[in-house]
Write a structure and sequence with these properties.
By secondary structure, this protein is α+β, with helices and mostly antiparallel strands. Helix content is about 45%, strand content about 25%. The chain has four helices and four strands. A hairpin with a 4-residue loop joins β2 and β3. InterPro entries: DUF559 (IPR007569), Endonuclease_DUF559_bact (IPR047216), Restrct_endonuc-II-like (IPR011335).
């Protein structure tokens, strides 16, 4: 796990995010997402330097489109956002949950 993944996982594990259960490195279809809440159909991805190349970007886009076809919603954050502005990353996740939970 990267430092960003560790930092975010510390905030998501054990039902800490508004009482929802998140899994880490969750397989869905033929893909793996960084974090996933099955009750919300929410995948959270942290994009690091490996996502900067055009090939990686296209693979991510293909994967995201396929999972969205299955009903999965995505929140994406840059690695630096998580490291240096975790408060606002968490606020964004909380806001998404409040707006989308049923």
């Amino acid at each position: 796990m990267t430092l960003s993944e560790i930092l975010l996982w510390e905030e998501l594990k054990n039902y800490q995010m508004k009482g929802y259960d998140f899994d880490r490195q969750r397989p869905i279809d033929n893909y793996i997402v960084d974090f996933y809440c099955k009750d919300l159909f929410l995948a959270i991805e942290i994009d690091g330097e490996s996502h900067d190349s055009e090939l990686s970007f296209q693979k991510d886009l293909t994967r995201q489109k396929r999972l969205e076809e299955l009903g999965v919603c995505f929140l994406r954050f840059d690695d630096k956002e998580v490291k240096f502005d975790l408060f606002n990353v968490l606020r964004t996740i909380e806001t998404w949950i409040e707006e989308n939970e049923s």
